[in-house]
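Data availability excerpt. The first of two example chains:
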Amino acid sequence: MSESVSVPEMAKQTESTPNQGGKVEHAVWTERMLAALGNGVKGGKWFSLIDKVYSPGNLLAAWGQVKENKGAAGIDKQSIKGFAANAWKFLSELRKDLKQGTYQPEAVKRVEIPKAGGKTRPLGIPTVKDRIVQTAVKRVIEPIFEKEFLPMSYGFRPGKGCKDALREVNEHLKAGYTHVVDADLKGYFDSIPHDLLKSEN
C-alpha cells in the first residue's frame, strides 16, 4: 500500500526569507531552523534533515520545479508527462522509500551534446524521480551552504549567474584592472576523487 501525500497549508505558500542573496523556503525551513541558521548550530553540524527532504510539502514543491523545468526522460524512459499522470502515486512511493531508507537512485542516462568546433560534451540525464529527490535535497541544504559562500562566488547559486559575474568583471576593469583570466578544468567531474568525496572522514 502506498502512503498518501497530503498537501499541508505551508506547501501552498510562496513566502520566503532572504538569505544572503538567496531565499529560504518557508515550506521547508521552520522558524526554529531559520533561527539556528542565523545563529549557527552547535558544533557546526546539522542533524536529522532527511525528514525535511521527504516532507509532503517539500516533495510536492520539488516536483513542481522539475515539472516546470521540463527536460528529457531518464534511463527508465518515464517522461514528465508520464509522471504527471500519476504524480500523487509516484510521490507517495518516493516519500515512503525516502522515509524507510530504501530509496535507490537509478543510473544516469548519458548523452553527448554538441560544442563549438565540432566537439561534444557528455550530459547526464537523471530519471524524473531522481530529479525530484535531488531538488528536494537542494531545497533543504542550499540555505546552509549559502550562508558560508562568499559574495564573489556566482556559480549555480540562487539569484546569481554569469551576467552578475560579468558585471563584477566590468567594475574591476573600470577600477583600472587590465587582465581577465578565464580558466576551465578539463573533465573535472570525471577526475575528482569520488571515494574521498563519499567518505565521512
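And the second chain:
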Amino acid sequence: MYLSYYGLHEPPFSITPDPRFVHLSERHRDALAHLLFGIDKGGGGGFVQLTGEVGTGKTTLSRLLLEQLPEDARIALVLNPRQNAIELLETICEELHIDIAGRRGSTKSLVDALNAYLLDAYAQGLRVVLLIDEAQNLPADALEQVRLLTNLETDTQKLLQILLLGQPELREMLARPELRQLAQRITARFHLTPLDARETGHYLRHRWRVAGGQKFPFEAKAVQRLHQRSGGIPRLLNVIAERALLAGYARDVASIDSKLVDAAAAEVLPPSTQAQRWPWLIATAGIAMLAVASWQWHRQPAAATPTAATSVSAAAPVRASPAAQIDVLDAAALTQLLGTTGNTPLPAWQALLALWKLPADRITVDPAGPCTAASNDVHCVQGRARLDILLALDRPTLLRLHAGTANAWALLLGADTRTARLRIGERSFDLDRMLLQSHWNGEFAALWVGDTPAVPAEAEVVAFQNARGLPADGVAGPLTLMALAGDAPGPRLLRVLE
C-alpha cells in the first residue's frame, strides 16, 4: 500500500470528508463569519446569502456553523427545499417543535403558531434562525413565503433571521425583477470561490500533516499543476492528488512532479473539459475514484482475520447485507424516538462497553456525572465538545440528545459529511448531521483503554492539537490524552456510511 511507502497513517486526500482534515482558507473563514453574523448580529431580520460552486465547501461551512451556535440560538433546518409554501411552513414548525396539530394545511394557522413561538422566544432573549440549504431549489411560492416570514416582528426587531445557502443559480434567481423585494432584504452576501494557488499549497500540506506525513512529496511545479487542473476546487484537488500518489507508488518514486500530476488528471478528468465546468468534472471524478478504490483493492494482499474490536464495523456490523438496512430518521421520527427511549444512560454505556469488549463491571455509571473506572487502564471522559472534535478522536462516543423536555443517550457509530449513524436503544439509525446538531448541545461521554500516554512539551502539545483538530491550548486535558492514545487498539468510527 502507498500509505507505508510515503510514511502515512491514513489516506490524506480521501474524498470522504473528515473533520480532522478541514482547512479553512481566508475566504472560508470570511464566509463562516458572515453566517455567524447572520445569527449573532442579525436582529435587523434581513437575509444572509451564501453561494458557491459545487465542491467549494458550503456543506462543510454549514456543519461548522451548527457546531458554533450560541447557546441562546434556536435553529430550524430545511434540508429539502423542494416543498410548496404550506409544506415549508409545516417543516419550519416541526423543526422548532411547535405543536401544529389541527393547523396543518392552513397558511394562516401555521403562521400564527410560528409568530406566537417567535414572540415567546423573543421574550426569553432567544434568537431564532431559519437555515435553508440548497436554496436554489425553492419553488416560487415557497420563496415568497420565506420573504413574508421576515414581516414577523416587534416594534424594534425582526423575530426571524434567515440564512440561504445555495449554488450560483441562487444569485441568478434572486436577481430576477419579480424577486426584487426579497433581494432588497439581503443584508449580507458572500460567494465562496475556489482556492487560489497559494491556498491550494496550504490545503495540500495541511492534509498531508494530518495524515501523519513528514516529507511533503509534491514538487512546487506539481502543486501549481494541481491547482491548474483542479481549478482550486477542494474536491477535485483530493481526487487528482490521490491518483498522483498512487501513480508515484506504482512507479516507485518518492517525489511527485508535474508530469505525474498531468497523468493523474488525465485519468480522472475529461481531457477536453475546461476546469470551470465543475458539475461534470465532479461527477466524473466520483466515478474515477471508484475505479481508483478498485485498483487499490486489487493491489492489497489478502486481508487478515480482523482482530476483536478493531473498528465499529467489525464489532457491530452495520453493512453486512442489504437485508440489514439502516433506517433514516427525520425530525419528527427522531423526536418521537427520543420521547420513548428514556433518559437513563445505562443501555448506551452497555453498548459502548460491548464495542470495547469490556465487561459491565469495568466501570460504574453515575447518571448525574461521569463514569468511574474500576481499573487503571480504563479511562472515562465526559463533558461538552463540538462534533468535529469528537469525530477527530475517531472513537465511538455517547451523545445526549434533546427534543423538547425529552432526552436520551445515543451511541455515535460513525459519520460522513452529511450523515451521522447512531445507535439508540437496540437499533441503529442514520440522520442528517445538521438535524443531529439541532438536537444536541455538545454533551458527550466516552472511554478509552490503555496506559496514560507520556505528555510532551507544551509546544509539541499545541502542534499535536492543531494536527488533530483539537482546541490548541497546550494543555494535555482528557480529550488530548485520549487523542494521544489514539493509536491503541479499540473500536473506530465508520468513515463511510452505506
